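Hey, can you fold this one?
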Amino acid sequence: MTHSEKTSAPTQATGTARGYRPGYEVAAELILEYVVQAGLRPGDRLPTEKDLADEVRMSRTVVREAVKILSALGRLSVQKGRGIYVAEPEQSSWQQSLANFLPADLRQVDELFEFRRHLETTAANLAAQRATPAQVKAIREAARQSTHAAQQGDIDAFTRADDAFHTGIAAAAANMFFVSTVDAMRRLQQQVMAIGLAGVAGGSLQVAAEQHEAIAEAIAGGETGRAETLMAEHIDMTARQFQQEIWRRVVPSDDSRP
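Sure. Predicted structure:
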């Protein structure tokens, strides 16, 4: 069986068989690898859709869907009548090196969470020292919204509240670099979910929401050590959930790679 036969699967899973990966997910990963290996930079043009399909050995239909995903994530830019381009980064220049991140690379995902752990525990510590009353209120409100979303099983609403919670803590750290870096790390995490996990959130939203509430109260009380410890536990739990889901979905299908 050829590589394209094994990976040009329907774009929606029809079962829960171990090792299944939607074709568009594999194609998105291979396109990102192609961009890096070809040395393409922001603004550079990719091959036509047909030629790109040949490059990654996937069907044009699957490649078209993968390009749509990467365009929505800000990795590619599709210009009608002109072609497909590597998107210009919206981040500041110091963040451009993050463009080589591959969402389904297990080692890179582990490194992402390792960095997040150090970054956000420090941010929580500083927030407990520096947060203004308005910032404490915003953090508490984001935690409350995450709890409500978890109770309703609303993943989209939980994700919005989660973003507000973590960026709120970064802002309360009163250091502009925390805000921009936390935002960049969360964007990469969202790419893991959109490509590596096909948009499926693992683990219990309720547990994460409870952790949000506890962290918010520690920050409100100026408990620096407790805020830092609780944030470490929160990031570690999230990392375990991602790792378990990636291993379940990605690792068994490695034999389908070229």
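The first strand starts at residue 76 and ends at 79. Let me know if you want another pass with a different chain boundary.
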